[in-house]
């Protein structure tokens, strides 16, 4: 059985998870939308870390973890640097959406590492996470767009295609930041 055929059940599970969370019964109020966004984000993180582990792809696992961590840290830093009231006025940590950045980092990592067969369903679930954050009145639409951009950037910069000969790795410390390119011959 080919690699893509084995991933089909995983892609189907991601689609079903997203679809089950979007039912009217599950989304009658803001709390339900908030819960749905957390479940969808967490499901993507589990798949992004679990799939490489199941396949023995430890480099992919490390890269997915790095992508998710980078997106989360970037979001947290921006929340502290640019305090903005949430639509529900619960606190001043609206910009950007951390749930969305982590969800999109996981989805982009899956797509970049394993292809569109896993990536497209993961991206749909990540988009549902962002949509849910707006419906829960935890974020404005632009918070979600910024979170998605952060996540996609982290996922595609840090995660390489499986068996890729070129790797791009962003780095940073207290004195600067940059990008390192690595090549395998």
From TrEMBL:
<dbReference type="InterPro" id="IPR036938">
    <property type="entry name" value="PAP2/HPO_sf"/>
</dbReference>
<protein>
    <submittedName>
        <fullName>Phosphatase PAP2 family protein</fullName>
    </submittedName>
</protein>
<dbReference type="GO" id="GO:0007165">
    <property type="term" value="P:signal transduction"/>
</dbReference>
<keyword id="KW-0732">Signal</keyword>
<dbReference type="GO" id="GO:0006644">
    <property type="term" value="P:phospholipid metabolic process"/>
</dbReference>
<comment type="similarity">
    <text>Belongs to the PA-phosphatase related phosphoesterase family.</text>
</comment>
<dbReference type="InterPro" id="IPR000326">
    <property type="entry name" value="PAP2/HPO"/>
</dbReference>
<dbReference type="GO" id="GO:0005886">
    <property type="term" value="C:plasma membrane"/>
</dbReference>
<dbReference type="Pfam" id="PF01569">
    <property type="entry name" value="PAP2"/>
</dbReference>
<feature type="domain" description="Phosphatidic acid phosphatase type 2/haloperoxidase">
    <location>
        <begin position="59"/>
        <end position="159"/>
    </location>
</feature>
<keyword id="KW-0472">Membrane</keyword>
<dbReference type="GO" id="GO:0046839">
    <property type="term" value="P:phospholipid dephosphorylation"/>
</dbReference>
<keyword id="KW-1133">Transmembrane helix</keyword>
<dbReference type="InterPro" id="IPR043216">
    <property type="entry name" value="PAP-like"/>
</dbReference>
<feature type="signal peptide">
    <location>
        <begin position="1"/>
        <end position="27"/>
    </location>
</feature>
<keyword id="KW-0812">Transmembrane</keyword>
<dbReference type="GO" id="GO:0008195">
    <property type="term" value="F:phosphatidate phosphatase activity"/>
</dbReference>
